[in-house]
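Fold this sequence, please.
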Amino acid sequence: MVPDLPDLAMRTPGRSDRNDKCRASTQQQPCAITLARPFPECSLDAQSDKRGCRRREIPRPSRPLHLPFPSEATESETVIRVRAIRGAIQVTDDIPDLVMAGTRELITEVLDRNGLSGEDVISILFTTTPDLSSAFPAAAARQLGLHDVPLMCATEIGVPGALPRVIRLMAHVESAVPRSAIRHVYLHGAAELRRDVAVPG
């Protein structure tokens, strides 16, 4: 049951005479209120004049757009995906030349072993252990020609007993190879970090 509604005046400017008959009652369904002159439907780019809203037709595409998923690509198409590549290298001392040289070696190996060029790199995040602070690894990446690639440097968490003097990177790249074919690179003493994925060399 719908509770009794107060006997309110339903005469509102713009309402039809049918609204005058709509009163609170004990009917199962509440009465409907209609507009005598409903507002015209207007598109978002409609222009208005003194008479009100003027309707304009919006062109619609003849058929819905369809963007294929990678799984729908044909055999002749090459699907480019975003892949993340990990890498690390251990240097012998916190000297700018050694940090820069180690970073250049690491980046070069990551690109070469995955068949990539600088144009395929989207961004690189570098971290160094707290005992390396003499140079920015990103500066070494600029020396290799990665001038328009977003780069960032950060300090690795100083966990007691962790491997010292390590430069790490995570590079996001565009690649057509599956994730299982990505070659992560761990050089010199850093190979101890991930022997499960480290590539010898």
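The first helix runs from residue 96 to 113. The longest strand covers residues 81-90.
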